[in-house]
Amino acid sequence: MAAITLQLETADALAASHPERAQEAIRRALGLARKNLEEARRSVIDLRAASLQDHTLPEALASLTRETAQEGIEIDFRYVPASEFPILSPRLEAAMYRIAQEALSNVYKHAQAKHISLNLIIENGNLCLYVQDDGCGFLLDEVTQATHSSTGSKVEHFGLTGMSERVKLLAGTLCISSEPGAGTCVAACLPLKAPTRLANDAGASTFAQQKSGKSQGEEGRGKR
After folding, report:
1. Which of 7, 49, 58, 107 yields a CA-CA distance of 20 to 30 A from 90?
2. 26 with 77, same domain?
3. pLDDT in tens, 131-143
């Protein structure tokens, strides 16, 4: 922040007498601001949940389904491979755990669901999480339009902003399928091997595509 302030102060001092040099200082300040923002985002995504301390991601997600289970809502959790699930990077584990938290919170707040399935799968070089519910669903077009709106209030309402941002930071994909009365499926896939540059501009695609959650592996069922 100090370096950015210095560049802006320089630009202010040179604005009248040397406008070209002032513009250069402004460009340097913008570059520093973008770099700091990217570093801040990466620091946030690296924050590990307490549930991941001394636990694998499948173990942490199994605990999450038990801890968040609500009366009248059945939660099924499965992961593949069930035996010898690979060791993942802390960044990948933290991101996927937070995505699962946000997806479940979204279901509890808005879906009015009776059943939720959580499937964690290693496939095609990706770590994928599928969260499917049988709730009320919503109009996907409205959410997609809100994504590109100036306010984004609808996106915040459906709790998708956090998931989208986490997926974007790890160059993954976020797929959403929903229809009124037909439930919702959220599919988040993150590459197991991080690209050379975890691009701030690497887009996370959000689109209407039904992904089927493969049902294999160890099951953790949470119902209260």
Report:
1. 107
2. no
3. 999 999 988 777 6
**pLDDT-derived band of residue 147, with 50, 70 and 90 as boundaries?**
low
Residue 175 and residue 206 in contact, taking contact as beta carbons nearer than 8 Å: yes
For 87, 133, 138, 170, the CA distances from 178, given in Å and listed in that order, are: 32, 10, 6, 24
Q: Same domain, yes or no, for 124 and 209?
A: yes
Strand bridging mode 173-178 / 115-123:
unpaired
Same domain, 40 and 92: no
Domain hosting 24: range is 2-46
Higher pLDDT, 133 or 155: 133
* DSSP, residue by residue, 98-131: HHHHHHHHHIIIII--SEEEEEEEEETTEEEEEE
The domain tally of the chain equals 2
CB 171 within 8 A of CB 198: yes
Residue 115 has pLDDT above 60, yes or no: yes
| Long-range CB contacts (within 8 A, 24+) of 80-84 | 80/119, 80/120, 80/121, 80/122, 80/123, 80/214, 80/216, 80/217, 81/122, 81/217, 82/216, 82/217, 82/218
pTM for this prediction: 0.65
205 in the same domain as 102: yes
Residues belonging to the chain: 224
For residue 79, which amino acid is it?
Y
Q: Show Cβ contacts of residue 148 under 8 Å, excluding neighbours closer than 6 positions.
A: none
